[in-house]
Amino acid sequence: MIEILKAILFGIVEGITEWLPISSTGHMILLDEIVKLNVSEEFYSMFQVVIQLGAILAVVLIFWNSIWPFGKKNNKAPLSESGIGAWIKKDIFVLWFHILVSCVPAAIVGVLWDDLFEELFYNYTTVAIMLIIFGVAFILVENMKSGHKAKINAVADITYTTAFLIGMFQLIAAIFPGTSRSGATIVGALLIGVARTTAAEYTFYLAIPVMLGASLLKILKFGLSFTAMEAAILIVGMVVAFAVSMFVIKFLMDYIKKHDFKVFGWYRIALGLIVLACGIIGVI
């Protein structure tokens, strides 16, 4: 029962931090310093990634009509006026092509060097430094963009070039925990002229193949030989992450319609400094 309660806590943290630009991986690493799951190191390495599948499902359900490329209803850009082509949503297929372009840099690095980067950088020091760096970046970028009209105000306006540039920013998060995948892509998108709400929406879509691919990679490395307790911990964590994500995604989309990202920048800086202080005095 204690381990299940811990899994619930991990699911809550994942559901909140995956979508807010404050680093889910960083928070999971920090939480593990405080609340240790009674599992093997190999299982935990897999768990902290695969728990994201619950968060992915929340995105799929909330944005289903915007990401499913088949169906006659609300088909703004059918491949043809009749026949099978009338069921194909050309604009959504283009969106997925853009998303795949954004995924290429992180996918290549993840497949080739995932274990190396995990060994080198998955520690509280890296998390703290990257929390602070991207916290400062959020504040600076928001100040720089204040009063300037965005060039790209809809996901449909994102080009292949823009998609690739956003993918390069996502690559930073793939290497350094504490960066935040959503934080890196949003900062990058804002820098190249994407509107705040559009940047957040595209980041949600981008999470689907990225997190699904990372989860499948971890499962393949770990194998399917779960104990009953390990399976229960993983399922509970994913279910809780899904439920919390449903609320957090809707909250964030409503929040950024009226506010900027500076509050998340200040939070990141404060948390990073606290983590560094705790490390210095030996608390973590």
Automatic annotation (TrEMBL):
Coiled-coil features, chain-numbered ranges: none
Note in the entry: Bacitracin is thought to be involved in the inhibition of peptidoglycan synthesis by sequestering undecaprenyl diphosphate, thereby reducing the pool of lipid carrier available.
Keyword DNA-binding applies: no
InterPro entries assigned: UppP
Enzyme class: hydrolase
The keyword Transmembrane appears for this protein: yes
Keywords recorded for this protein, A-Z: Antibiotic resistance, Cell membrane, Cell shape, Cell wall biogenesis/degradation, Hydrolase, Membrane, Peptidoglycan synthesis, Transmembrane, Transmembrane helix
Catalysed reactions, as listed in the record: di-trans,octa-cis-undecaprenyl diphosphate + H2O = di-trans,octa-cis-undecaprenyl phosphate + phosphate + H(+)
Topology term for the membrane: Multi-pass membrane protein
GO MF term list: undecaprenyl-diphosphatase activity
Record-annotated membrane-spanning stretches: 7-30, 50-71, 92-114, 120-141, 153-176, 202-220, 232-253, 265-283
Protein name: Undecaprenyl-diphosphatase
Protein's GO biological process: cell wall organization; peptidoglycan biosynthetic process; regulation of cell shape; response to antibiotic
Function: Catalyzes the dephosphorylation of undecaprenyl diphosphate (UPP). Confers resistance to bacitracin.
NCBIfam families cross-referenced by the UniProt entry: PRK00281.1-4 (NF001390), PRK00281.1-5 (NF001391), undec_PP_bacA (TIGR00753)
Domain of life: Bacteria
Pfam families: BacA (PF02673)
